[in-house]
Write a structure and sequence with these properties.
With about 100 residues, the chain is mainly alpha-helical. It has one domain. Helix content is about 55%, strand content about 5%. It contains three helices and two strands; from the N terminus they run E-E-H-H-H. Strands 1-2 form a two-stranded antiparallel sheet. It is flat. It starts with 14 loop residues before the first strand and ends in a 15-residue tail after the last helix.
């Protein structure tokens, strides 16, 4: 019987910057767009300048933070999903009832 290597599937991902593909760019642009709309709404309500700029900065920063890859290589949204899945899993503990802890 001959043994041969089975080639694995190669996935090509277009990256604009290092670690930044289309999903990350769209998420950052969505956050910046929502921030711009919130700032526009705040200016229409004639709020002070600091309160007009603050929603734009917060929403834009949130969009970029969600999309930006962490040092582990995954973005914040993927990390939060895996953390939530981890907290919902059952945990098993091993107890030794014959052992004296004292």
């Amino acid at each position: 019987m001959n043994r041969y290597l089975i080639p694995r599937r190669i996935t090509q991902r277009y990256e604009l910057f290092e670690g930044w593909g289309w999903p990350e760019v769209l998420s950052a642009l969505a956050g910046l767009g929502i921030g711009a709309l919130l700032s526009l709404l705040a200016t229409l309500l004639r709020l002070p300048l600091a309160l007009c700029v603050l929603p734009g900065i917060l929403a834009g920063g949130t969009g970029i933070a969600i999309a930006r890859p962490m040092p582990t290589g995954e973005n914040l949204l993927t990390f939060l999903r895996s953390a939530r899945a981890y907290t919902r899993t059952r945990r098993f503990y091993l107890y030794d009832f014959g052992r004296d802890d004292a």
